[in-house]
Amino acid sequence: MGALPDARLAGDREIHRRGEDHGRTDLRARCGVFDWNGEVMTTREGLRLGLFLVPTGHHLAAWAVAGSRSGSGLDIGHLESMARTAERGRFDLLFLADVVGLFNVDPEGLQRDANALLFEPFTLLSRLSAVTGHIGLVASASTSYNSPFALARMLSSLDHLSGGRAGWNIVTSYQPALAKAFGYADQLSHDQRYGKAAEFVDVARQLWRSWGEKAVVADKSTRTYLDLAELHPTQHEGAYYSVTGALSIGPSPQGEPLLVQAGSSAQGRDFAARFAEVMFGVAPTLQQAQEFKVDIARRAAGHGRAPSSYVYLPGAFVLVGESTDAAFAKLDELNAHVDPVDGVSMLHNFGIAFDPEVHSLDDPFWMLPATSGQEGRRAALANLAREQDLSVRDVCRRIAVSRGHAMFVGSPEDIADGFERWYREQAVDGFNVMCARLPEDLDLFVEHVLPLLRARGLFPAGYGDDTLRGSMGLS
What we know:
Blueprint: H1 7-11, H2 13-18, E1 33-34, E2 40-41, E3 48-52, H3 76-88, E4 93-96, H4 107-110, H5 121-129, E5 136-142, H6 148-162, E6 166-171, H7 176-181, H8 190-207, E7 216-219, E8 224-226, E9 234-237, E10 242-245, E11 258-261, H9 266-275, E12 278-279, H10 286-302, E13 311-312, E14 315-320, H11 324-335, H12 340-349, H13 375-388, H14 392-402, E15 406-410, H15 412-424, E16 430-435, H16 440-455, H17 468-471
Parallel strand pairs: 3-4, 3-16, 4-5, 5-6, 6-11, 11-12, 12-13, 14-15, 14-16
Antiparallel strand pairs: 1-2, 7-8, 9-10
Helix pairs in contact: 5-6, 6-8, 8-9, 9-10, 12-14, 15-16
């Protein structure tokens, strides 16, 4: 594997230290959440932070450098330790992504993927709920390859077990290989997947209301344990689901789990604006984050949603060093272990078509055709490529490091400055933190970055409400 020199990754330090902001315009007057009179409102005070948990780190080569952890995907002690560290730092939530099957569909990329073999996420979160007491527990679950009844029951159980800390990242699954793994000839179209997802969520919400709060009476004198007047079975007939029945579990502490979504396409954004309380996303520049927030605010208002009902936490690739130079030296070391084929593999994994018989790595990235994969991610990368005049090769290098997310590389002060800037310029409500190396960057972030954010009044010292939704200040 050869070195991966790239001025855009290792040379332009100001960009990565502060968070990229090419072409930034002052959108302050447009980036709040709009009330019904058109006045700008803020949804909350202070950053909200999720930890995007993977075993070895988000840099593809995190496992390959000397002294790193290898084979830690099924090391429960390692995962428990990171969950405790995140809670000690007062992260709002842990997030586990899941694609059900193998994410890396390219054989050359798969053989170097240290995050390929993982626990089923809700089983793992149930275990982590026993070793934590406050941090939220969020995982992806597909509406294409689950049933509303089974998933609603599973999520309600996790909310009970954790004392009201469960969250569901709603995904529609875009990988054609998954359809075949589940016995289908092909996957649904992009629009069909979102139509099915909307009906899935509607059915799940009906099921979470199967029993009223006073269902258990336990009256020994009448030998009545359940008040059947509190039973509200679901009777649903729709385009994708026909569901009749009630869950065999009572109302959970939150009533329903916190709903999370990461769609960036037009359909994905509208879906998020309708349902999501936490919105993840890919925003490689401050301007793209601002524009996303403006767009989602207008869409949410169109669905009649109150401004206090959602927050936007895009991904933030974080690598911490004692100094700016030390951080970039660490990044250079990691980049030296990345093979160019890894970036091409990531393109395929994200559903972005690259045919070497049609296109060259030196072609402008925007020339690659659209596919039925992650349309929003491709659009974000295409916008970045236009702003910075990036080739396919440039984008491959970028996604091999950060998957296209914003990069914050530098000293603790650099990273705190970048987070503060994005927050104060109303581009974000917080971040889904993607540590380059785990547990190293998580430890450094908790010990050195979070105290700076607290000193600036940007992050709380302790948890508030007992539930995840309440702790995040969501109504």
